[in-house]
Amino acid sequence: MKVINTSADLLSAFDAGRFDMEKWKTYMDAHVPGAKDLCLSDMRACIHAGFSWEHDFLPVLNAVLWETKKREEAVRSFCCVTAHLDERIVRRFGRTVDAAVVLYLGLCNGAGWVTPVSGRTTVLLGIEKIMELNWCDPDALTGLIVHELGHVYQAQYGILHRTTDALPDHFLWQLFTEGVAMVFEQEIIGDPSYFHQDRNGWKQWCDGHAEFIRQSFRNDIRVMTRENQRYFGDWTRLEGYGDTGYYLGARFVRFLLRHSSFDQIIRYGIEEVKTGFDAFMRERA
């Protein structure tokens, strides 16, 4: 795993107190060759969908220059989270993750983006979105970075992506893969009860309503669509709480770990996941 911290030079993308596109291109080509065109393409797609450069992009980018304390906190947290992270992964799982983790200024394409860059799996971390979302503390960045590396680990050593036209299979697979990434986080942190989503009593509510979440997901999966699903994404809500699918997914994968190793589980296909989920649902609460 390679860690690339461009923070020492990201202010070179500004001129006269304002983000400068041409200077940004020079900065990107110097630090993350191959990523510039990905970011520009994503920006154009967003503008085509109705977003505005002046109102939606530029203020977020300019804030990186203006909000010094928040920027410095994000950089410190990135350094803290990534320090010896590769060694921690090897210590726990016996092998590394072949990926680059990059902290950069990235045209608001997202706080975290796992994508091939010049043929290598890369975790792009846009500091402008990290700051906008107030994810500058070490706990928030741990969730962002280590969770994405959990997906990379599954893709590298098991099966991550599969295509299905059956939406129930799609959402069960999503529950499974997000659960794998959550357990990967917990194992690296060294705390099986850790959830980076735990703010404002989130985990306490989930622990107290674990059976309700489990039964709700089983009932919903028959009619779930991308528009009405209530489990994945902090913008969704189940009884007022977001990200409950990540909680349930972690419990599901922990159940599977009773009988199989983590490296066996990440090689499961959909039929094995279905069989495991049926057994998980038969377990007494």
Characterise the protein shown here.
With 285 residues, the chain is an alpha/beta fold. The protein has two domains: 2-157, no CATH class; 167-282, no CATH class. Helices cover 56% and strands 9% of the residues. The chain has 13 helices and six strands. It has helices at residues 21-31, 35-48, 53-66, 68-82, 85-93, 127-132, 138-157, 167-189, 202-208, 210-220, 244-256, 262-265, 270-282; strands at 2-5, 14-15, 18-19, 100-104, 113-117, 120-126. The strands form two sheets. A four-stranded mixed beta sheet has the order 1-4-6-5. It has a two-stranded antiparallel sheet with strand order 2-3. A hairpin with a 2-residue loop joins strand 2 and strand 3. The longest helix is centred in the middle third of the chain and has 23 residues, at 167-189. The mean pLDDT is 94.
Q: What tags apply to this protein structure?
A:
single chain, 285 residues, alpha/beta, 2 domains, 4-stranded mixed β-sheet, two-stranded antiparallel ribbon, 6 strands, 56% helix, 9% strand
